[in-house]
Model the fold of this input.
Amino acid sequence: MRRSASAWTSSSLASVDKPSRPRTRREKIEGIQRTLEAYRRFDRETIPYGDNWKMPDADYHYRQPWYERIVTGFWRTLMGLLGPLLVRIAFGARVVGRKNLRAVKGEGCISVCNHFHYLDTLFVREAIGHFGSFHTMAPWNNKGGIGGHIVRHGGMWPFSANLAATKHLNAEMERRLRQGKRVNFYAEQVMWWNYQKPRPMKDGAFHYAVKFGVPVLPVFCTFSKRKGGGIKKLRIHILPAVRPDSSLPRRECVQRMRECAEAEWKQCYEEAYGIPLVYEEDRRSRKEE
Done:
């Protein structure tokens, strides 16, 4: 029996109007990342960071008094014991290129790593050392509660808009670098969850490298993704160090170091994944460019 036109139309509309399944959290985040990538806005936040944080002020302890060092020693020891187990078991992590770390042995250096996971500081520690490294972070990571307590005592240094706090940070960074320690920067500025491509770096890490006369050690993480978006087969690549050229003007030296580090990341990405680095088609207007 033939269906009437009205019956066919209503049935067709019902099938067309049937809502598709809701997008998963992973799909939403990846969609935002693709859009920002297309507009070359690589330094935009994709995940809200909330308001449970405090801007470091002039009294913030970048250089800790003796009584705080006891607590710091406890948390650093715990991270040093449990961190390697966690990254190896949960993420299948392995460090590649340790010879490049040995090449800067005994020197203070600044590392730059891609920022793609809430725990990527543990990944960097696995590469450059749990006990001899310090890690810069955005001020909104200076949170309250037990999480913030652990982060602060784990060797994390929040940046600050407060001038006095910034001076204290600079002084402590110089002191640690002179001691041969390593200071990590997330030069992409913000975290993009499970994003595999390298993003353009900011000048900050290279400014400090030139200012204090230390090399920059590029670190780049590659990984496979599980069905749900989780990480597996994590590889933490330590790449050849980039050294400042004292014959160049400071600004030019900063730019040259950044470009060399970005080239190291790009080459690592293409070799690890076996594909060229290609971003979404550029959607910017000429005025935006």
